[in-house]
Amino acid sequence: MKSFDYTITDEVGIDANPAVSIGKLAKEYPDSEVILRNGDKKAQATMLMAIIDLCVKCGDRITVEVSGGNEQKTADAFENFFKENL
């Protein structure tokens, strides 16, 4: 398993638009399972409503966990996405 922490800098946090983008990105890596954690809550990256239910706000530090095939490539793609968009 690969994981990284990221502090959200977008003033809106993770609402519907970035949640959809996260889901689309996760579907590009079907061999990997991607889990987002915010405190004691977690969501699969392919589950739009679960991501929104994490209630991620600006300043929250989330953990992204990747397991399965292509872990490093998937983790790198998600880390780049978060840095560029959130």
Describe the structure in your own words.
The chain has a single domain (2-85), classed as HPr-like (Histidine-containing Protein, Chain: A), CATH 3.30.1340.10. Helix 1 (16-27) packs antiparallel against helix 3. Strand 2 (32-38) and strand 3 form a beta hairpin. The protein is an alpha+beta fold and 86 residues long. The mean pLDDT is 95. The chain is globular, with a radius of gyration of 11 Å. It has three helices and four strands. The longest helix is centred in the C-terminal third of the chain and has 15 residues, at 71-85. A four-stranded antiparallel sheet has the order 1-4-2-3. The termini are far apart. The protein has helices spanning 16-27, 48-53, 71-85; strands at residues 2-7, 32-38, 41-44, 61-68.
Q: Strands, helices and their partners?
A:
Layout: E1 2-7, H1 16-27, E2 32-38, E3 41-44, H2 48-53, E4 61-68, H3 71-85
Antiparallel strand pairs: 1-4, 2-3, 2-4
- Assembly status: single chain
* Low-pLDDT segments, ≥5 res: none
Going by CATH, the architecture would be 2-Layer Sandwich
CATH topology: Histidine-containing Protein, Chain: A
First-last Cα distance: 23 Å
Order of helices and strands: EHEEHEH
Sum this structure up briefly.
With 86 residues, this protein is α+β, with helices and mostly antiparallel strands. It contains three helices and four strands; from the N terminus they run E-H-E-E-H-E-H.
Task: List key phrases describing it.
alpha+beta, Histidine-containing Protein, Chain: A, 4 strands, globular
